[in-house]
Specification:
Length: 202
């Protein structure tokens, strides 16, 4: 599928839509609405803004919908079934906070968020990354890396290969010009990779 987010005068908060790859390539996409943010805001009585969706390859059937409130100080994250067009009952959900999240597999996330007192940087960004498994209380998630309060932020990142393998990384952003890169092995241990401090993870 090809996904697209569109705003209009009729839908100022926006519609998240999809079409098949074949229809898109042929230049005749038939867009199918999967998530109506205007309708969701009306139900919730809020004015949330679209911040994106992170979908799990290779079929992209499960996604993490990311929304922010009017103040823009944090985001909410909630698991969404793109085939059913609805949130997943008892699925992954993170309340409003400065959060960065990545899929590891169907039942696992790599998460950096506000885990409680003294878990953010001095600038209010996440600095602790944990592995969180489905059905596990969030407070019991396994810590894989903890940065310093003086860091700019610490970010989880994952890369999926064409054969379905996933590699886990941590980016410790010490400043706008300097960062460190770590690889997370199968045991959940973060090992630093030697790269120039100015290198950017893409």
């Amino acid at each position: 599928y090809v996904f697209s987010f569109q705003q209009s005068s009729k839908h100022p908060f926006g519609l998240w839509r999809r079409t098949t790859m074949d229809a898109y390539r042929e230049g005749n996409p038939k867009w199918e609405t999967r998530f109506d943010l205007d309708a969701q805001n009306a139900i919730a009585g809020r004015r949330q803004q679209w911040k994106g969706a992170k979908c799990l390859p290779p079929d992209f059937g499960r996604c993490l919908i990311i929304l922010s409130g009017p103040a823009g100080t944090g985001v909410t994250v909630r698991e969404f079934d793109t085939d059913r067009g609805e949130y997943v009952a008892d699925g992954f959900e993170i309340g409003e906070a400065p959060t960065e999240v990545e899929w590891v597999d169907t039942d696992t996330l790599l998460v950096a968020t506000n885990w409680g007192r003294n878990t953010l940087t001095a600038g209010g960004r996440p600095r602790i990354v944990k592995i969180w498994s489905r059905g596990q209380p969030m407070r019991d998630a396994q810590t894989v890396y903890e940065g310093d309060r003086e860091d700019a932020e610490v970010l989880p990142r994952t890369l999926f290969s064409n054969d379905g393998k996933v590699s886990l990384f941590i980016v410790r952003q010490q400043s706008s010009q300097a960062s460190q890169l770590f690889h997370v092995d199968e045991s959940g241990r973060a090992m630093r990779i030697t790269v120039p401090p100015s290198a950017q993870f893409k």
